[in-house]
What we know:
Blueprint: H1 3-21, H2 34-38, H3 42-56, H4 71-82
Amino acid sequence: MTTAARDERLVAIKAIVCDILEIEEDEVSEVSLFKEDHDADSLRAIEILAALEKEFGIVINQTELPRMVNLKGVYEVVSEPAGW
Length: 84
């Protein structure tokens, strides 16, 4: 996989996360924690999961939610069913 493709996907994921958490994109880093740094709750996590499923045409098991604590974790969770 090219770095450009990964970066493009990460930008799309970041846009979804920021929209749902109602924060600016420059407030989020790849490792900033959604709950601790951005006051996300479990409902927001489920909204993020649903939006990612819709955007990328994949199914993510809700058991993956504990891994989705930051952008890096979300990318890893999305990449598995998407086959990246």
